[in-house]
Amino acid sequence: MSIDRRPLEPARLAQAKRAFTTRRVALDRARLLLTGGTRPMAGDLLLCRVVEPGQHKALQLASGRPSTLFPGDELLLAAGNRYAPDQFEAYLPDGTGPCHLVAAGGLGGRVESRFERMGEPTRLEALGLVADASGRPLNLADFRIHPPRALRRIPTIAVLGTSMNAGKTTAAAHLVRGLVLSGVVVGAAKVTGTSAPGDLTLVLDAGAATALDFTDVGHASTFLLDEPALEETFTALIDALVAAGAEVAVLEVADGLYQRETAMLAASVVGLFEGTIARFAMLAALMGIVSGMGGNAGTQTLAVVVRAMATNQLTSSNTVRMILRELRIATANGATLGLLIGGGTALMFGNPLLGLVIGSAMVINNLVAGLAGIMVPVTLDRLKVDPAVSSAVFVTMATDVMGFFSFLGLAVLSGLAS
Question: Running DSSP on this structure, what letter comes out for residue 139?
Fold first, then answer.
C-alpha cells in the first residue's frame, strides 16, 4: 500500500489534545500527516481520533492536567508497547486504522490482553503519522535530552517492587522527602515502565529539584527495549540529574522484579559496578581474619590474667606493670602477624596497599585485644563479678568491633573501598 502524504495544518495540530509523552516534541517541525501503508515505530508521533472512551476516560496532557475525552477528539500520542499486569498488554499499531489508548499518559497501541478488572480500552482511529517536511516521521528520540557524561558519581538509590501498584513511587517520594529535609539536593527519575505525570509530580512535591523519566531520553515506554537501550536510558538519566546539580539520585524502576526489563536492567547495573563489588567482596573476605586473630589474642590474654587473679599473682600493686607487659606482647604479636598476613595478602591479591591496610589493622586490633584482655577481667573483679564467667563476651565484642572498624576504616581512608 502506498503512503499518502497530506499537509498537516498548524491550527489542526494546535487543537489536538497533546499527550504528556509528547511534551518535548517541537510541533513547529510537523508538516505532514502520513497515511496509508505506514507502520509506526516505537516513539513515532500518532494523530488519532477518539471513537469511544473506555477504561481511560481522560488523557494526561503535556502540562500534566487530565483532559476528559469525547468522541471525535483528536489526540497527539506516541506509538508504543506496554506490559502492565494490572492493566493492558499492548503492542505497536499495525498502521492507520483502529487502535487503543493503552496508557493515560499518551501511549497509542493495540491491546492484546487485559487484566480481568479492567474495562475495555478506549477505542481510537489512528489517522496517520506526524512527519516533517521531508516525510520523515517525527519520533520522541528526535527531541530527547543529551546530557553531558557525568564526571562525578553521586549516591544512587533504586526503588524496586514486586509488581505495579506495589508502592514504589510512594516509597521514592518519601525517600526524596527525607533526603531533602536533611539538606541534600535530590534528583529523581523513573527509568522503566510507562510514563505518567503523577509519578513525576509526586517526587517534585516531595522536594526533588529535578524529575525525569525515560520519555525525556526518547522512549515512549521501556517494554521490549533491548539491554543496550535500557543501559543507555539508565546512564543518561543519571547524567542528566548530575548535570542539574543533584547530590543524590532516587530512581524508580517500574513494573515487577520478574519483568524482563527490570531483570535486564538490574543485571546490567550490577555489571556496571562489578569492579566495586569485587573490591567490597575482597574486603568482606579479609575482615573476618582481622577480627578472628584479634579475638584469639584477646582470649589468650584473658586466660593469662584470669589465672593470675585466681592464684593471687595479680594485685593492685602490679596491675599497671602487667598492663604494660601485655601491651608490649600485643604490639610484638600484632607486628609479627601483620607482617606475615599483610605480606601474604599483598602477594595473593597483587595489591601492596591492601597488604598494608590489613597489616596495620592487625597491629591495632591486637593492641585492643591485649588491653581488653586485661582491663575487662580487672574491671569485673572490682565490680564483684566473676571475671571467668563474663569476660569473654566483652573481650570478643571489643575485638570484633575494633577489627571491623580498623580494617574497613583504613580501607576507606586509603581509597580501597571507594
Answer: B
Q: Which of 272, 305, 331 is the last residue of a domain?
A: 272
**48 and 77: one domain?**
yes
- Inside any domain, residue 148: no
Q: What is the DSSP letter of 122?
A: E
Side chain identity at residue 62, one-letter code: A
Q: Is there a single domain that holds both residue 290 and residue 380?
A: yes
Using only the alpha carbons of the chain, give its radius of gyration.
32
Cβ–Cβ under 8 Å, residues 214 and 254: no
| Interval 154-168 mean pLDDT | 86
Of 24, 18, 226, whose CA–CA distance to 140 is shortest? 24
Q: What is the mean pLDDT of residues 60-72?
A: 97
pLDDT in tens, 253-299: 987 666 777 777 666 665 655 665 566 667 777 878 888 888 888 88
Query: What amino acid is encoded at 127 in this protein?
Result: L
Q: What is the pTM of this model?
A: 0.68
With H, G, I as helix, E, B as strand and everything else as coil, classify residue 95: coil
Host domain of residue 83 = 3-143
Q: Beta strands of 20-57 (E only): which ranges?
A: 32-36, 45-52
* Grid cell digits, residue 255: 513494573
23 and 104 fall within a common domain: yes
* Residue 146 cell numbers, joined: 543529551
Distance CA 109, CA 194 (A): 13
DSSP string over 289-329: HHHHHHHHHHHHHHHHHHHHHHTT---TTTHHHHHHHHHHH
